[in-house]
UniProtKB/TrEMBL annotation:
It comes from the Bacteria. The keyword Iron-sulfur applies. Residues 29-97 form the High potential iron-sulfur proteins family profile domain. This is High-potential iron-sulfur protein.
Length: 97
């Protein structure tokens, strides 16, 4: 197993952080169209615009992006689409914290 020195670790960490930051910005910039429940990927993941799961909706999911409080926001699961903050899909994972 190859060990990583401190300098390489810091470079890798900084690059990862920059990539995550710009990746989130790019995801927000690309997402424009509201996700339809009839979309093939949405159907496969059982996406709905209105969650029926107590305490589980897109606004509490770790994959949602964008500004909190907005009704429609980008989601990492559905690139290029906006999901309803009150929606839900089977990929839902609770936000940490």
């Amino acid at each position: 197993m190859k060990s990583v020195n401190r300098r390489d670790f810091l470079k890798l960490s900084g690059t990862t952080l920059i990539g995550m930051t710009f990746g989130g910005v790019a995801l927000q910039a690309q997402a424009q169209e509201h996700l339809s429940e009839d979309d093939a990927t949405a159907k496969a993941l059982k996406y709905v615009n209105e969650s029926t799961k107590e305490g589980s909706n897109c606004s509490t999911c770790m994959y949602i992006q964008g500004e909190a409080g907005k009704e429609w926001r980008p989601c990492a699961i559905f690139p290029g689409k906006l999901v309803n903050a009150n929606g839900w899909c089977s990929a839902w994972v609770k936000k940490p914290g």
